[in-house]
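Lecture 7 notes: from sequence to structure.
We start with the chain below.
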Amino acid sequence: MRMRRKQMKMYNLRKREITKNSEGGDVTGWAEAVPIEATIWQAGGTIQAEQYGEHLAYIKNMEYHGTLDLRENDGICVYVDGTEPPDYIIKSINRDVDPKVITLEKSHG
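Predicted structure tokens for the same chain:
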């Protein structure tokens, strides 16, 4: 499958980092933003509607053809600047196809 160049936009990837606080508890933070080129669109269709139900409004799909290692729980800055915490989190990655098809979920914090 080929991605259309004119539909691709620049987004910021922020890798999830887990560090320890002074009390030894885990604290989730975000690495510096790395620009990526991808196509993102609103989730829809019968299968995704059945899968996510009313939660479908908070789900987006992304196609990514780059070489960066994306992982579940990394963040994507879709509507926010790369200096802010990401507004979408990677929930699943289908690596069996090229480009990779990734499911994003709206961040709740």
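Points to note: The chain has a mean pLDDT of 92. The helical segments are 46-52.
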